[in-house]
Fold each of these.
Amino acid sequence: MYNPLIDKKPYGASVCGKATQVKFSLDSAMQIKRVFIILRQIFGEGGSVEGVSAKFELTRRMTVDGEDVFAGEFSVDRYGIWNYRFEGEFADGSLAFFGRGADGTAVRGDWLPEWQLTVTKSDYKTPDWSKHGVIYQIFADRFCKVGDNPFNKRGRLHTYWNDRPDIEEPDKDYRADDFFGGNVRGIISRLDYLKSLGTTCIYLSPIFESSSNHRYDTGDYLKIDELFGTEEEFRLLVSEAKKREMAVLLDGVFNHTGSDSLYFNKEGRYPSLGAYQSTESPYYDWYFFSNHPHDYHCWWGSTVVPTVNKSANGFREFMLGENGVIDKWCKAGISGWRLDVVDELPIDFTSQLCAAVKSKGQDMLIVGEVWEDASVKIAYDEWRPYFMGGQLDSVMNYPFKEAILAYTLDGDVAAFVERVSLILEHYPKQSLDALMNLIDSHDTVRALTVLSGVIPPENKRARADFTLNCEQYALARQRLIFASTLQYTLPGVPCLFYGDEAGVQGFEDPLNRGTYPWGREDGDLIKHYKSLGKMREEYSDLLTGETRFIEDSELLIFERESENGKLTVYANNTDKTVTRAYCGRDALSGKEVKRLSVKPHSVRVLTVK
């Protein structure tokens, strides 16, 4: 009847003022004479929109296999988010209504969900380089250490690399002040290893001076944290990465600073006159005080990260102006920014920030931290126009993460298809292709631990000391291989969290932030990830093609197709081997396949080019 991934062009989002083509088919026995598409705008310029609607009639084109095919094109002159449905008119003037079924296709009935049509303000471009390969996320303090850098922080530096991270203790504030000393030289020493995984972009957690091991409490935006390395070493990292055709993406934390910072200076450790110290501070209007100095607005109530007033002229100039933060680090050779808690930033500041980054080169990448469907993200009662043009290139793809992990654990194909299809329908393709596809991160439980299916111990001390036994690990490992193959073949770019490929496990922060286990890796798992990276390099053109799901009674099947060929993914999350007639090539092993056999709880990726 109607499938927006097949029967609507362009694929995904449309563009304001440009034609959208649709095809709608109905059983001829219904004898519907006319078909209309009804649109109503939900969000647009200025936020929520009410009362804006449009109606277009489709033309009956032909009858094929007992179905009347109606088709046509339309355009809207207002950018934003629209909902739409179809109406069929009988000869007597009565109507039949068609809305979105659970699988995305059309269903007849009253008050059904509608489809979403994202209409961008312009046909904006995203960096082509960012749509291929693999992103490797590094938690800077925990990946690799070569030599000893100065340690002048409160807290402690672990003596042994393989120690467990410290956790909060009863009746004691947790300040993330235990360090392992992972550094720039350590990353440089492992660049060839990263390249062997198919890495094309290294995403670094914050690297600027701060008091914590995670460094999301910035102390000085213009200085590399001394424990991590020097500016010269960082520039060398960028240079050496580029020699291996790898980009470097920095984490931009612009919503808040550290209370122990050059700008707030609550601890008095900096020579500056901080906002906490005096209302005469040049940084005073960077923050929100209700009763100076002790009562101030901070992120999620944590007093160590006071919220910044992004409207302060001095702050904006410091961040976005000449010789400011964006200017300095873009000139150091980085290829873009991941924007931390981007939904906390005012819309106009986000636009100015993105413009400042793009002024350094249109190939600079901007990825936002958004946990939901970013096309309809609401924050502080405002719709965020991330995909309208002039803002983000793409986002961290948590919806795919949830879909992949859930399907790996429960095998519900329909739920997986519904979750993924919504993103495919809602996002502009240029942003879809650049999605940061993760299955875990520094903010989540490790994928291996989730996929074990183990119920977490109630006590954090017990969770900290917990390790999967051999049987649990074997099951989790099999599931991780399954999940990662989906991660690497869905639209977007896989983001591999450091150590997942080596078998690192762990519950919530900071237990998910252990050190990389050099010398104790799961070699077979690494081999699997290397084969996935090689596949993404060999079939990069197909993996930026369109995506379509194929109905099957037993398997999850989807195709990635471009003008150069097709990749077909067969996921079998049942307890029996499933066979299908097929003639082609296994994209992972390279072997020819004449009859497809998909073992229980496994994924095959096949191609015909």
Amino acid sequence: MKKLTVFALAAALAAASFASCGTYTDTDSSSAGSSSEASASESSAESGEASSEETSGSTADEFTIIATQPNTLNMIQSTSNLDNYAFYLTQEMLFRPYDGVYQPEVVDTWEVDDTNTVFTYHLKETTWSDGTPITAEDFAYYLTAQLDPNNGSANAAFLIDTYGFLNAEAYNNGECDVSEVGIKALDDYTLELTLETPNADFDGTNIKVYPLDADFVAEQGEALGGTVDNYMSSGPYVLSEWVYDSYLTYTKNDKWLNSDSQYPVETVKMIQATDANTSTSMFEGGEADAILTVGNDYLDILSDYLVEDVFSGTKGVQFNTYGQGDEAKAALLSNKNFRMAMSYALDREAIVAAVDRSGIAINRYNYGDMAGKEVDSKFADDFSVETVPMNGDADKAKEYLQAALDELGYASVDELPALSYLTFENDSYRLMAETLVDQWKQVLGLTNITIDLKPIPDAIQSMMSYQYDLYYTSLSGGETPSTFAKYWITGGAVNDVTGSGMSLFSNEEYDSLIKSTSTEFDRAKRMEDYAKAEQIFIDEGPLIPIETGVNYAAVADYVDGFVYNSFDDAIELDHLSVNK
């Protein structure tokens, strides 16, 4: 498979009604976005407060958080934000994002040539947790291993689409040798990245790059990242325990270059989330210092402890325009009028109010605090679009449906082929599915849509192999429209998730506009091109937007410096302290 862009698990929501699950995530450092930081709450819930004497959980040297465990710590194959939480804690980085801003870490100095295509990084001398030196080759290998066609990494397309390293696509297609790729270690402490063309959205710092030892990877083979023994640490913490489906323990790494000034907590314990009631009871009883994601039903109960992070991504219904190989379904799902009918039939504000208390209804893809023509202006204010009304339009929906039936030769909706709506075996996703299917039935008379609930990993696998007709997806965005826009170019990471040439959507003008943005350094002009592309995708794309959302974490009032940032895919404990 090609790439699911750093495929953020929507799974982070599995155990309760988690609000900000993302199927795809962004590594655009310019995504300052909105982060979450907690210091002592002014008050605490009387029913949940426990004194340090009463608490059998963490001490001041330990921070315990309830979250969802990683899928895999194979750094070549990983596509989940849950894995990225672990990478952030256990690996050093060229530039470390903190609260939406990328700070140089291993990089000492760096420069960009006059063509804006060659970035040279001079690195500090650092080591793995066992004291073995880390070199520029380890950082280069982290990138080239994901591009290596023999590895079949789902991340390859994301690297190609987002950065455009010289010959990266050719190498991934087996058309050249790795030595010809614009990712090189010039010596032990000099890394050079060369782009095919200038990239106006890449400033050289907004990239997540960890070290990866090629010899260790070869030695571990398929076992890489499966257990503590199959994993190497280089960052603030060492992964010291991983009891599957139970907990992970991270122990402070004194060999990390900034260990004296950052990450003061000695041990971080991440307890596997189960059901929301159990998680809440553990938090209230002092067995945990934080819950990463609080379900909608528990927001009132934990109101004194909530910390929010706005999820800037788009959640919506994705259409498989290939119809799982069925010609009748493919024709229906590819029909613009049918997709418009489905979109106009929905009252987004009513749906979100009923289903997702932390959701925010949307009817476009670039919205919120995303910057526009100027850094301090908003894209949505600068560029309006023609789109479906937030509350829908039943009459218009019926007109579009009739047009679709006429085009496809159906006398009535009763003749339409059966469609399956794939989603997670999770209360909030199930409820969303039931609500959408019911609105389509009530407004359009559609009775041909059945809901296919699967465990999160199985649902994701089915989506990645086009075994669905409709799928409720979640795509992370950034501070600029570039991330979402590049998902949907022909062959893009989300558009053609299998890398087999099966793009769900293809439009030459759209592709041309997105290509032009990479070399357009005039911000206003670049944003204009993104706005034109957004309108095309609203009119033609196989995704109807429904909502974005807010993720709520719960953090005890004795914890300072907790930062969770969905843009960074990180639980950022850089300056966290537990003051019991």
Amino acid sequence: MNKKKLFGAFLALTALVGVSACGGNETESSNSPTTSSQTEAVASSKGSESSVSTPSSSANPTPSSSTSSAPAPSETTPEPTTPVDPDANYTTVLSQDFTDVTAIADKTDGATMYLDSSAKGSAVVEGDTKYAKITGNSSDTTLYLTTSGLDNGKIKMSFDFSLSGVQGSWTLFQLYGTSETETEPAEVFGFRTGKDSSSVTYIGYRTDKGQSVPTGFSSQLVYDGNANTWFHTELLLDLGAGTGNVVVTKAGTSYEASFTQTISEIKALKFMAKGQGKSVCVDNVVVKHELGDFTTVKAQKLVKLEALYNSYDLTKYTTNGATLTAKYNETKTNVEAATDFDKLNEAYNKGVAEIKAIKSDAEIAAENLANAKTAAIAEVRAEYDRLDNLYNYTEAERTELDSTRDTAIEAINAATTIEEIPELVETAKSMLAEVSHTGNGSEVVRMNYSFDATTLTAAADKEACVQSEFGTTVTMTGSITKRVSSSSGNVYAVELQKQKSGTLSFVATADATLTLTIGSSSSSNTSYFVVLADDQRIEAATVSGNAVKDTTDATYVVVAGTTYAENVVTYTLEKGKTYTLCTMAGADDVISGRAVRIVTMNIA
């Protein structure tokens, strides 16, 4: 791992932090008492409170020329005392109070705070005095930073966080530690406000539904449900010794906990809002790193490198065993030759990554089998397409053709050896060729048209559609507009105006099926929709959802509301006929007074 990436992870966390309280004005102090081992210069301002924690210092006294006189001969002027700086051997790798933050970035390489890719919520910056906020949704929303390269020395970290809408289980921060062989990081400790868990050492707790505070925890730190509560955290980790100390302070009351945990490398610092309406605010993040003794760190890396190499069973690397051994020896030589931390980390991280990328016999075989399957499936699909373009198939014949192709693909995917695949491909081709067909020719024209209104763009709601948005297969006439969501600003449907004043038409160049998802012009409206074949209304083949055939005249469809995805209508098309999609027209205002909205249109 390189130091740059590690620092990037911590920086990402910093971007989360805000100066202002989450969900209200700050009413409690978020400062923790400073100690000789944890004093850092961090300024913060939350609401009406402000504080500065700095190392103590003494200045040389400067006598005033107008009021002071020289000391008597028997007196001596004391030498100024130089205070001991507890952070003299530390380098600040991250320091940010988010006053200049304007956005929370997606995941990128480097020093970036980002949202988990699966998160449904959002991280935002609000107010005049910026802070980082993670807002939960129906599933967990996580804001975190990845780290790499900090696998030696000591780390000091401080930050503030605040909660709102807490119910149930929240993980406010976790530092992950893992061995080289583990693929998923393991929890070292965490701060939660929900139910107990044997995997986490709690330093803060909120009772839920009558639960009692776990033994050994400070009742002063139990979360009181006040959304304006800020906690200040001071954390010290000795990566070499595998020990840590954490102090959490709320309103001037502190709780301190120590722990021992073997940490090969810090993986991530995570803030998580779990559940809709929940949020976490983070502010004033400072991270400092002490590398430690260079000779000791180099020795530790050599031990880790040897342990990694010894974890491989070379009998399972008959193809790449020599490569793996050579890469280990090369990395070891480069680590031993390093003369500073930058070169040491570069040599170690590069070598470890290259060793882990070397494939075992099983991985090579699996990769070759996967490639063979991909090529075989492509060959079967190509034969299917050739036959489909060469012959005219009835609907029943094409169903059989499709089923034959799909069965062949399933069989290929189920193969366990490469040797099976050629025979499976030949069998598939033979079976596809045996499917009967009604005629043949060198070229058979097939209908293949797809339209999705949600892919369109519009500057404003009810912007007129243009012909190019429907392509060359379908012709637009009259008034058709794009409907835009007021909340998202995105197009969600096109609207065919009432009284047949907006139409979409096309010529069926082959027998095909027309499939539509449609809706009415409002959630409380009912609309009437028809498809004309050579100007004659035809009956829908199938309907679903809030779309139904009229009870007395099945040649038009009655559709209610705007639950478009449920309203699926299909029509059977005959080659050579001209089809027109439109609203009902006539003197009856009940059935001709509403527009119809179309979301998707497919012809195949």
Amino acid sequence: MSVLREKVREVIASVLPVSLFVVILQLIFHPLSSLQFGQFIFAALVLVVGLSIFLLGIDISITPMGRSLSAGIVRRSRLSGILAAAFAMGFLINIAEPDLMILVRNIESLTQGVIGYKQLIVAVSVGVGIMVMFGFLRLIKHLQLKYIYLIVYGLIFILAVFSPIEYLALAFDSCGATTGAITTPFLLALALGLSAVTHDAKRDGSESFGLVGMASSGAVVAVLLMGIMSGGSELNGQLSFPEPSEDFFAPFIHAISPMFKAALMAILPLAIIFFVINSFTKETRRRDYSRIIVGLIYCILGLSIFTVGVEGGFMLSGHLIAMHIVQEFQVWYLLPLGFFLGMTTVLAEPAVQVLTKQVQKQTAGAISRKLVMIFLAAGVALAVALAMLRILVPGLELWYILLPAYIIAVALTFVTGDLFTGIAFDSGGVVSGPMTATFVLAFAQGAAYAVDPTTVIRNGYGVIALVATSPLLALQILGLIYMAKAKKEAQLAVGTQLEETGPQAEIGAEAKTNHHQEAEHVHDRSN
């Protein structure tokens, strides 16, 4: 119960800023009717309950399963078996990702079934599975991350040239949605378990980062290939709204059955593959099975409740609010509202707090949590504002923003080292959490529909992609700052010793040698 209370506090901290954002807009602009506003508040409460139970289930079952599976497979399998198991785990865990489930259902509804739920989620999961397989190979063979990203994103840029422009936003939004509440901790656990088994004493452990970022890039490749195979046909989207009803609970009750079935089908395959593999590896003891089973039940229950809240009124409110502001007030209000929404979303995200601690620890305090938070908040706020700007400025394509951003991000991998590269590319899912995949996405789609209904797919999507791109630049820039600090400290240490003369010469020479070693150690840590 104490752990559950902690999860509830974390989720409330995540949902509350968005809820306050809606309350303020309701007081100023009155975009929702009394019934719709009440349904939004109730949906927010449902989200808190569902997401809290779901995150508790992840801690109890999914994370231990990830560590156990990776360690057991590596110890007892040949390379071919390891790679096959990696693909299966990446494929199945991605199917269970709630952020992706929400996005794919939204795409199916908006394209009126032209892109089906099963078709898209299977394609994305195959892409993720393949990249998890290559991620395992990188960890086993100790390959450098920067060269892998150079090859992967070079392939993405080539595919993007031949894919219809509408698929570009869908591809990069899928990339951000794959690394959510369940996929990120599971893949991090896989990487840590694998790194512990294959660890080289000469290495600093930074190789354990990067698997999440590699997995998400597989989603981009998969969706762009779907676009190429579509024959270049354009996608037309139409926002659909439920028929007005005076029954307050009707949309929630209507969503219970399909959302429970979806959650069950998402979690069950992962559970099956875990118990099958563990029957051979024996990495997890049978007496721990009951705890894992209870955790999986929590995951199914929490995921069901969470998606009921999303479908019952949370995303609909985002659509309606943005549409009302565009239609009834000055359209340029979207820019400051988008900036404020992005900032409040990232500041309240619980996973961001974990990330700031991680960076501060890895840099031995040279990069403070406050500095990391400032960079991330500014990056995400700017990303959401740019998403609003795309809606307002005709012809401002997503590619014009993403292309230079990714070119800079990949170029920085050659100067920041594997540690900051891995953390940066893993962090896309940290900032593009449940609030981005639900309310922020819905807000962007509502605004795009109100400005020009024919561009709702081209401009309504892309906000998750922009948000997920922001930490790639922010954290690698922080890596450059850290390396500059380390270099300056090393130079000061050597300079101080050069000033020593006279009777202290012998002592100074020895100290100088020690400081040289210290400078080399600092440089190694930065790399």
